[in-house]
Hints:
The chain contains 11 helices and 13 strands. Helices cover 34% and strands 17% of the residues. It has helices spanning 11-22, 52-59, 77-87, 141-157, 179-189, 208-220, 238-249, 260-265, 289-293, 301-313, 331-340, and strands at 2-6, 26-31, 43-46, 64-69, 91-97, 162-167, 170-171, 192-196, 202-203, 206-207, 225-229, 236-237, 254-258.
Amino acid sequence: xxxxxxxxxxxxxxxxxxxxxxxxxxxxxxxxxxxxxxxxxxxxxxxxxxxxxxxxxxxxxxxxxxxxxxxxxxxxxxxxxxxxxxxxxxxxxxxxxxxxxxxxxxxxxxxxxxxxxxxxxxxxxxxxxxxxxxxxxxxxxxxxxxxxxxxxxxxxxxxxxxxxxxxxxxxxxxxxxxxxxxxxxxxxxxxxxxxxxxxxxxxxxxxxxxxxxxxxxxxxxxxxxxxxxxxxxxxxxxxxxxxxxxxxxxxxxxxxxxxxxxxxxxxxxxxxxxxxxxxxxxxxxxxxxxxxxxxxxxxxxxxxxxxxxxxxxxxxxxxxxxxxxxxxxxxxxxxxxxxxxxx
Length: 343
């Protein structure tokens, strides 16, 4: 197999390139060379996806059996469309990494691949879907952009050759967002540790390596379609995650569970101050049985925790990203809430 990875130098893109090399596939990586390092053994082509001449030069490096697009998270649909059209004559399939944010019902409703996808035309620019500053409803801007990019890929490659993967939360070694690293570092610090919501609350994070494996499998398969890339509903809980963090780091942290209402009353910001905590009804009710039937295998969350701690302990550093600073509650605020829960 000859594969082109758009991105390829950090987190998911690097995991895809690394996994393809492990299969002894021929790997070409296309990026700007501004962050991360491409795995040894991959051929690198430098360029900017928003520059037509760079895309045309890239197309001249083909053909490939498949393209895996991991670098379009902040790219307007029309730019994805332009790139997909140039690559279509020299690529067999196109695997696009989207997100569950593309669904109109996320995070408020349970979801399947048949759930409604947000509006977003394939030729939309970066302004499409922006909301006024005084808007107090759902913020669908990012989801609309991703939905438009999904349609761009399908418009260029057709339904039989376009694959759309919709992950939820991706964790694992190399994570740049900072969710799991924050919990691990907090557990390592020890002491009474604020734990959000109910211990038995199901969660569905997926390991970056499992997304990479599934993306490559779909690139090699003779079919198109859309798949939710999340762990099975109800398999693991918030308690499983935090207990694994405590055990893995070897600290003396004691989990102190705080009800949702108490956290809300103390203005704890959902999703970021206590990472992965969210009260919305559908946030962890994303059906992935279609992906599992197509070969998706999700390793135990405890393995993801252990391997991420090993990466951090060995001096692993993520690519710098502004989202890292958004995560984690301050020691002072945590102490105030813990004091209300007694000893």
